[in-house]
Specification:
Mean pLDDT: 84
Shape: flat
Oligomer: single chain
Number of strands: 19
Structural class: alpha+beta
Number of helices: 7
Largest sheet: 11 strands, mixed
Helix content: 10-25%
Length: about 400
């Protein structure tokens, strides 16, 4: 995710309240039987080492078009007005059509795909792969997908190293049950958002002119003099490739119940390298379906855009060395572009059962593009308290010795 702050231009026509305009991201997509273009085999999967799809029969490899280029998603953000959405980002429509039936063109059998859990299945007679690449009304298929590029062996090594450094304080049940080989590759659903906004901030800032010490009773106190200025900033802000979770489970950041915040710490993803969605990229991995619509995610994206604005404006405030206090902050979103994406994560999860009967889900996650690793493990509280007590005792003893020898 990147952002640019630029001098304000003449505001474009306000169309933010208009109905979203749709980018058709599944033009030319085919559902049903997915075949190798060279030999016709349906044994297709991702070669993580190259990032290409590979035929398991003739070993032919190919890649899908870059989604950003194919859908012109790198268009000038300053020209964005209203709401532009990919067809895979449209609102999820509750429907009984989540169970789809495909006719296998190889043998004629009818095969059912439950789009709540998968967009790919095998024919139970001839084992040809049936795939769904077109968006369907229930929101099962995203606009683009970012393929895995970190291999499982590397992820296993990183997870084992992460846990190994913390095993001393880990709960003994976790230590006995931990097996890094149980890591799973999963595509998590996100919305990727571009935002064209205009910011107006006003307040006051202080610039220190003098620092001195005064005697107050028996103590010295540090004082300073400062000039106070009215501070205003008025500028355009362009936010590029902001990623927002679109699974309601992942959006739940209640740290008393889960460690979902772990996923945020392995950001960012290089979403600019995403390709047009093809269900063959899912072979060998699991995926989680999007279940949140734009009206639920828009406030989150706008709040993050406001945070980015405050961070960006700090670059212009170095003169005010005593700080700036804003009394008014306005960020007007003029245009936004939304596309749904699957982003790749290697995930080790552990369900901790606590003594009070409650459970807590721990994760160790690896960004399957960069290798960035973060996680949480259940702690052995007794051992942690014992070590803390020993450290405190040693510190106290050392302090008493130093006092005794007059240091």
């Amino acid at each position: 995710m990147s952002m640019d702050a630029v001098e304000p231009e003449t505001p474009p026509p306000a169309t933010a309240d208009d109905a979203p305009r749709v980018i058709n991201t599944d033009d030319g997509a085919k559902d049903g039987l997915a075949k190798c273009a060279r030999c016709g085999s349906t044994e297709i999967s991702l070669n993580v080492a190259t990032g290409h799809l590979r035929c398991g029969y003739c070993r032919f490899e190919w890649s899908t078009d870059n989604a950003i280029d194919a859908f012109n998603l790198n268009g000038d953000i300053s020209k964005l007005t209203g709401i532009l959405v990919g067809s895979g980002s449209s609102d999820i429509v509750p429907s009984t059509e989540e169970i789809l039936t495909f006719k296998c063109t190889a043998c004629g059998a009818e095969v059912v795909i439950d789009t709540n859990t998968s967009t790919q299945a095998r024919c139970h007679w001839c084992r040809n792969t049936l795939s769904m690449n077109q968006q369907v009304p229930n929101g099962a298929v995203p606009d683009m997908i970012l393929p895995f590029s970190v291999e499982k062996a590397t992820a296993v090594e990183k997870i084992a190293h992460f846990v190994g450094k913390r095993k001393f304080f880990a709960h003994p049940t976790f230590r006995a049950e931990f097996n890094a080989e149980n890591v799973m590759g999963v595509y998590l659903p996100y919305m990727v958002v571009d935002i064209n906004a205009h910011a107006r901030l006003s307040g006051h800032g202080e610039h220190q002119t003098r620092s001195y010490t005064v005697k107050v009773g028996d103590k010295n106190q540090q004082r300073y003099d400062a000039d106070v200025y009215a501070v205003e900033r008025d500028f355009d802000i362009h936010v590029n490739d902001l990623t927002v979770e679109s699974s309601s489970d992942r959006l739940d950041q209640n740290t008393s119940k889960n460690s979902n915040n772990i996923i945020n710490t392995i950001m960012p993803f290089d979403v600019e390298n995403s390709v047009r969605y093809d269900s063959n990229y899912l072979a060998g991995f699991t995926s989680e379906r999007r279940d949140s619509n734009l009206d639920q995610l828009t406030p989150i994206a706008h709040t993050q855009a406001e945070d980015i604005t405050r961070h960006k404006v700090n670059d212009t405030l170095s003169f005010y060395d005593r700080g700036v206090q804003w009394s008014s902050e306005q960020v007007e979103v003029r245009g936004q572009r939304w596309v749904s994406a699957y982003l790749p994560v290697w995930l080790y999860s552990y369900q901790q059962r606590k003594s009070n009967g409650k459970t807590f889900l721990h994760y160790v996650a690896v960004n399957a593009r960069t290798g960035e690793t973060m996680g949480s493990i259940p702690l052995h509280q007794s051992r942690l308290l014992l070590v803390s007590g020993i450290v405190q005792l040693v510190g106290t003893v050392i302090g008493l010795v130093l006092v005794a020898v007059g240091i």
